[in-house]
Design brief:
Strand order of the largest sheet of chain A: 7-8-9-3-10-11
Number of strands of chain B: 0
Mean pLDDT of chain B: 88
Order of helices and strands of chain A: EEEHEEEEHHHEHEHEEHHEEEEEEEEHEE
Low-confidence stretches of chain A: none
Structural class of chain B: mainly alpha
Helix content of chain B: over 70%
Largest interface: A-B, 28 and 20 residues
Number of helices of chain B: 12
Low-confidence stretches of chain B: 259-274
Oligomer: heterodimer
Shape of chain A: globular
Number of helices of chain A: 9
Number of strands of chain A: 21
Strand content of chain A: 35-45%
Radius of gyration of chain B: 22 Å
Structural class of chain A: alpha+beta
Largest sheet of chain B: none
Radius of gyration of chain A: 24 Å
Shape of chain B: globular
Largest sheet of chain A: 6 strands, mixed
Order of helices and strands of chain B: HHHHHHHHHHHH
Helix content of chain A: 10-25%
Chain lengths: ~350, ~270
């Protein structure tokens, strides 16, 4: 199995895309806000965009090399690209779409993706989930050596999305192809990929397993993007070997991380517990604040308290009889916090 | 007040319909249908129809063969001065036909811009059937080009990109994706251009003349027959009305024939006329 290597330098409208990646037999997700240059990375690999400088190679085979002026056209790169809105051919039925990439494996793929019964249907008459399966089958019909997925789940409604995400994760594991996914959703990235890279304004800030990014975000953006609360403040040595962060919003919080100066204190919503009165427990940090909003997410409830978001079970929320405007105490342990440097 | 306004609206509609339909009806009411058909057998009428058919078909073949790829290129490229190029190609739409004829003479005439070079090659274009074809191409092609351009522009670029990543080279992408998706628009534009070419008069009479049996097309024959053979003129006119009506109907139906999920196109007059 060959490794996909790429290094790109390309001027986009308001920033430079500058990315270097190496991709073995694994799934890597590039996650970042829209307009971060994610899709351009995919287009450059597929050959739909010619970067200003850089190199794209699969093993010993160079696809693009600005040093030698080499630029293989897309049809000669062994790539399966699944477009964001799937880009199915509206004038061809499902079989026609899949066969466009190659006729040899059409029946097998139709069966594998459970779309045989839709073979004669046109894309306009398919559901979102069905379209996604057709797009995947079509991309695989050419037996690509590399799979690229552009926001594979964003065109789906919330209900379908969960199911399709599971199926897709299984499929990717089964295929064992070097796969690059771009998404703006950290949860999708964490669910689908072995490694996650956070990309902002054309630069990759941090690459690692999703758990690593959660445990040790390299900077404030990564922390907030992975869903952490980020409290801004000034760090200084505190008692007991802890770091005290004097929060910009008032009060202070303690962390086991060492830092000094301007920092962001990151704590995940599921590490924050709520109580009516300050509990006597092992948690060092207790912040009193008003409940600003309550959002139910199935069996969980996201509660905004002052500058923090806490995620508690629906049962707990019911027991505490929470309502907007009421005062509660949010608690989290110093060991559950991470201090990330903040750019001045 | 509102009653009066309703009345004005109704009167305007009746006046419009009557005014536009009356001349067309008059052609058919003047002479019995049987006589009309008989008049078409006259040598002059037959020749004119054959010349019209031949030159229109040849011109139309050129328009489709050259206009289609040209519109495809222009739809998929962006460059400085693109809109200037598009406007230039639309200019013949609004140009007075007499000016078009004058321009063709100035370009291809014996003493025209290219007259010398063409003369050396032994080519004398004015007052030949080649001139008829050129005149038709000049006035009719923008109708097709404009429609083809918007039809190709309406094709989602992601589809073209997807086709490339699925192993299709540029020609296959054009043939299998862009062309089928643009087809309704191309069909409508093609029909309009053909109708415009068939009725071409001003540029043709200036550049190709009206030589019976050589360059006299049906519209020119109608003009020529007005004085002494009014019935022949009416017969030719009636036939052209029928053909034009059929073409109009075709232009309206073509988008409906194609499946509902292709980009929809309605019969649209090129933007310069809006």
């Amino acid at each position: 199995m060959d490794t996909l290597e790429l290094s790109l330098d390309h001027a986009l409208r308001s920033f430079r895309l500058s990315v270097a990646l190496e991709l073995g037999r694994e799934t890597l997700a590039l996650v970042g806000p829209s307009g971060a240059g994610k899709s351009s990375v995919l287009r450059a690999i597929a050959g739909l965009l010619r970067p200003d400088r850089g190199r794209v190679a699969l093993g010993a085979e160079a696809w693009f090399d600005s040093a030698t002026g080499m630029h293989l056209p897309p049809e000669r790169r062994s790539v399966g690209l699944v477009f964001q809105e799937y880009a199915l051919f509206p004038h061809l039925d499902v079989r026609g779409n899949v066969a466009f990439g190659g006729r040899a494996r059409v029946e097998e793929l139709l069966e594998r993706f459970r779309i045989s019964h839709l073979a004669g249907v046109r894309p306009a008459d398919l559901s979102g989930g069905e379209r996604q399966r057709v797009a995947l089958a079509r991309a695989l019909a050419r037996d690509p050596a590399v799979l690229l997925l552009d926001e594979p789940l964003s065109a789906l409604d919330a209900h379908t999305r969960g199911v399709v995400r599971g199926e897709l994760a299984e499929l990717l594991a089964e295929l064992g192809l070097p796969t690059l996914i771009v998404t703006h959703d950290f949860e999708d990235a964490a669910a689908l990929a072995d490694r996650v890279g956070v990309i902002v304004e054309g630069r990759i800030l941090q690459v690692g397993a999703a758990a690593e990014l959660l445990a040790a975000p390299a900077d404030a953006f990564v922390a907030s993007f992975t869903g952490a609360n980020l409290l801004h403040g000034i760090a200084r040595p505190g008692t007991g070997g802890l770091t005290e962060v004097v929060l910009d919003t008032g009060g202070s919080a303690f962390s086991t991380d060492q830092a000094e100066g301007k920092v962001g204190l990151a704590v995940y919503p599921w590490e924050v517990s709520l109580a009516r009165t300050a509990p006597v427990d092992s948690a060092v940090n207790h912040l009193r604040g008003e409940v600003r909003s309550l959002v139910a997410l199935g069996n969980r409830v996201r509660v905004s308290v002052g500058p923090l978001t806490a995620e508690i079970t629906a049962t707990s929320a019911e027991r505490l009889v929470l309502a907007e405007g009421e005062l509660v105490v949010a608690s989290f342990k110093a060991t559950a916090t991470r201090l990330v440097p903040l750019g001045s | 007040m509102s009653r009066l306004f309703q009345l004005v609206l109704a009167a305007a509609l009746v006046a419009t319909v009557t005014f536009l339909a009356l001349p067309v009806l008059a052609i058919f009411l003047r002479v019995p249908p049987g006589d009309l058909v008989a008049q078409l057998g006259e040598e002059r009428a037959r020749n004119a129809l054959l010349i019209s058919l031949k030159t229109s078909l040849i011109a139309h073949a050129f328009i489709l063969l050259v206009g289609t790829p040209a519109a495809y290129v222009l739809a998929n490229r962006s460059f400085r001065g693109r809109s200037a190029v598009v406007s230039l190609l639309e200019l013949p739409l609004v140009l007075p036909p007499a000016v078009a004829g004058l321009g063709l003479l100035a370009a291809f005439g014996r003493s025209g811009l290219l007259g010398g070079q063409l003369g050396v090659l032994g080519l004398h274009i004015p007052f030949t059937q080649v001139a008829v074809v050129l005149a038709v191409c000049f006035v009719a092609s923008p109708f097709y080009f404009r429609s083809a351009l918007s039809a190709f522009e309406a094709v989602d670029p992601a589809l073209l990109g997807a086709a490339r990543t699925l192993g299709a080279g540029p020609f296959r992408v054009f043939r299998r994706v862009a062309l089928p998706l643009a087809l309704p628009g191309l069909g409508a534009g093609s029909t309009l251009a053909f109708a415009r070419g068939l009725g071409e008069f001003g540029a043709t009479i200036m550049f190709a003349g009206s030589l019976p049996g050589r360059t006299q097309t049906a519209p020119l024959a109608i003009y020529d027959a007005l004085d002494e053979e009014f019935d022949v003129a009416l017969a030719l006119g009636a036939l052209l009305v029928l053909v034009s009506a059929a073409l109009l109907l075709a232009a309206k139906l073509v988008p409906l024939w194609t499946r509902s999920n292709s980009p929809s196109t309605t019969l649209s007059v090129p933007s310069a006329f809006r």
